[in-house]
Amino acid sequence: MNALLGSLVVLVNLVTLCNAHCYIMPNPNTPGDLFNECKDLTGVIHPLNSKWKTEYCEECYCDQDGISCCNIVATPVSYDTSKCQKTFNKETCSFTVVEWKNPGKSCFVGGWVL
């Protein structure tokens, strides 16, 4: 019972902190046209129903309506900013939080926001 209650508390906090940044780029609407590909902002063509990650840490998906993209970076919140610093790794699209004086030591993070 305690495990179930603990899981619910974690889930509620995760949903509360989740605020993903997403956007949609619709395909041009021409009556009768059926799209089998999408063109992203950089001009790259993606096949219908494909998924990819961008260099800006977004996950995108191409469907009949166009491209939808969402940020996949979880940003740390509720940590001791006077003692700790967050560092972004672009290759892994992730933050780490370490002590200012001892960068080899991780800091406690109270939550993450998408």
Automatic annotation (TrEMBL):
<comment type="similarity">
    <text>Belongs to the beta-microseminoprotein family.</text>
</comment>
<keyword id="KW-0964">Secreted</keyword>
<protein>
    <recommendedName>
        <fullName>Beta-microseminoprotein</fullName>
    </recommendedName>
</protein>
<dbReference type="InterPro" id="IPR008735">
    <property type="entry name" value="PSP94"/>
</dbReference>
<keyword id="KW-1015">Disulfide bond</keyword>
<dbReference type="Pfam" id="PF05825">
    <property type="entry name" value="PSP94"/>
</dbReference>
<keyword id="KW-0732">Signal</keyword>
<feature type="signal peptide">
    <location>
        <begin position="1"/>
        <end position="20"/>
    </location>
</feature>
<dbReference type="GO" id="GO:0005576">
    <property type="term" value="C:extracellular region"/>
</dbReference>
